[in-house]
Amino acid sequence: MGAVWHPECFRCHACNQPISDYEFSMSGNYPYHKSCYKEHYHPKCDVCKQFIPTNMNGLIEYRAHPFWLQKYCPTHEMDGTPRCCSCERMEPRDIQYVTLDDGRKLCLECLDSAIMDTSECQTLYLDIQEFYEGLNMKVEQQIPLLLVERQALNEAMEGEKNGHHHLPETRGLCLSEEQTVSTILKRPKFGAGNRVMEMVTEPCRLTRRCEVTAILILYGLPRLLTGSILAHEMMHAWLRLKGYRTLSQEVEEGICQVLAHMWLDSEIMSGSGSNIASTSSSSLASTSSKKGSRSQFERKLGDFFKHQIESDTSSAYGDGFRAGNRAVLQYGLKPTLDHIWLTRSFPC
């Protein structure tokens, strides 16, 4: 600091009390008590709220979610700290996430717009159908939509024989086989410890009247995530009903992800109060705009779901989306679909 101080004048920049300790900390040209410096500059864990400890080399080491930038101690990745099954954020010690009947955890912000039973999802289903009609891609067949638990979804997937490809954790399924599926009939209530209680399900026999038997969606996810999964599965249905056959994983999953991403775009735009619309989605935003502006968190959540699609590292979903999105941006959706029909590949 290059200066001489009276003892009572050499004060901490944070608390303005004299520094009498032999050791002190500096930030810029300002002195701090070591404890004050730690309080102001040492990062705290967003999960346990404690100062993030230094590693064996004396360096502060922490993890951070790439989108939410939630900082946490590395030990929380191994100590059983739950993550929200929707937004992936870790459960802070001072907040209790909801425990769904199939063991998934849901944060309270995602719970706020979560869709919990089949009847509750029908309005969103109509929104997705309007979205497809706005693209001149009306799905003529009335396809049953059911919200189900994770176990029922996994069992239905095992019963499929058409080689349909899915992410490691399946959250939606376009069925083409006849099956009996247990669907959620009544929105569950939450009891002690934020655990689901009074879950009402009933078996539903699905009979095949066309190439698509039903669409199944995992229950308990926020509206924007449920809608993007539904938009994805609706594209599988549209492709089958229109006779698109033997597409590669990358092409089929890729174009389905493009439609999910487009729907999210239209929802975020229509819920922001903006009148500016891109040509690909200006006619698609009629339904959600009726609901008024979204909360700041829900808009952020929509951006996160888009980020998940855009940054997916898998060849089918990630590379497929990026190839399909490039094609749609360059040539338009209909020419891209026409090219897929003729060549079973994306235009270059």
Automatic annotation (TrEMBL):
<dbReference type="Pfam" id="PF12315">
    <property type="entry name" value="DA1-like"/>
</dbReference>
<dbReference type="InterPro" id="IPR022087">
    <property type="entry name" value="DA1-like_dom"/>
</dbReference>
<dbReference type="InterPro" id="IPR045218">
    <property type="entry name" value="DA1-like"/>
</dbReference>
<keyword id="KW-0479">Metal-binding</keyword>
<dbReference type="InterPro" id="IPR001781">
    <property type="entry name" value="Znf_LIM"/>
</dbReference>
<dbReference type="Pfam" id="PF00412">
    <property type="entry name" value="LIM"/>
</dbReference>
<keyword id="KW-0440">LIM domain</keyword>
<keyword id="KW-0862">Zinc</keyword>
<dbReference type="GO" id="GO:0046872">
    <property type="term" value="F:metal ion binding"/>
</dbReference>
<dbReference type="GO" id="GO:0043130">
    <property type="term" value="F:ubiquitin binding"/>
</dbReference>
<feature type="domain" description="LIM zinc-binding">
    <location>
        <begin position="1"/>
        <end position="43"/>
    </location>
</feature>
<protein>
    <submittedName>
        <fullName>Protein DA1-related 1-like</fullName>
    </submittedName>
</protein>
